[in-house]
Amino acid sequence: MIMQDTLSFHLRRLALGAGVALLALSLAGCAGQEGRKELTTGSIPKHSKPVASMNATELAAAAESIGQAYERNPKDREAGLNYANLLRMTGRNEQALAVMQQVAINHPTDRDVLGAYGKAQAAAGQLEQALQTISRAQTPDRPDWKLKSAEGAILDQLGRSTEARRRYREALDLQPNEPSVLSNLGMSYLLTKDLRTAETYLKSAAGQPGADSSVRQNLALAVGLQGRFQEAEAIARQELTPEQAEANVAYLRSMLTQQGAWKQLAKADDGNTN
Prior knowledge:
The structure is a single chain. By secondary structure, the protein is mainly α. 68% of the residues lie in helices and 0% in strands. The protein is built from 15 helices and no strands. The chain has helices at residues 2-15, 34-38, 56-72, 77-89, 93-106, 111-123, 127-137, 145-157, 161-174, 179-191, 195-206, 213-224, 229-236, 242-257, 261-271. Helix 8 (145-157) runs parallel beside helix 10 (179-191). Residues 1-37 and 40-44 have low confidence and may be disordered.
């Protein structure tokens, strides 16, 4: 029992490192892509480089710049959303939540705002509150697949995998073959140590048009956890530097050899069915 708990902790550390939704999952050292895609451009200085290519120092500088725009006009929806997103991307989750609380007060019926508020709550550990917020953002007559997927991600963090997978499938009904949702579904199975099913969904996600780096890094994680380290490193090298890819695989090797974790993981995987 202790061994299984230890293994689950390490899996969650690998798979839920950012705290917020599985949309942003990746191996250590790879920044979440979902938050980068969510950023709008209205409040970002035109001379700055694309957010997707910024390193940690540049992200911090961008957060400071957009933070000044937000301070000048806290009711500016775009500035608030961008600022909160950048704060989350730089690990300042409590501050991001405070910003989103103010944005939500000023835009109480805006679905994008409520969705971002829910993600900020999840990042700050307020998972039940996040579910309630995202539920408020969703409307039965015009369901939003992104909100369905975000809800599934939070349910996964709460350990409610059956409900989470139902949400992902509902999202896929609305947005067939969406790579971020397929990736989330794969990571849901990874969290319950059904590695073969996880890999199936993650391979499908990685093969879709528009699949980003985080999807491929999730696939590398699922492959590496099955002991196929060279294959995992080859996948990781597509976006990471050789040093980062090597470091990720080295961490996987270390984690799986500690306290017999590899044997426990293999046993759990053999007991799962697709």
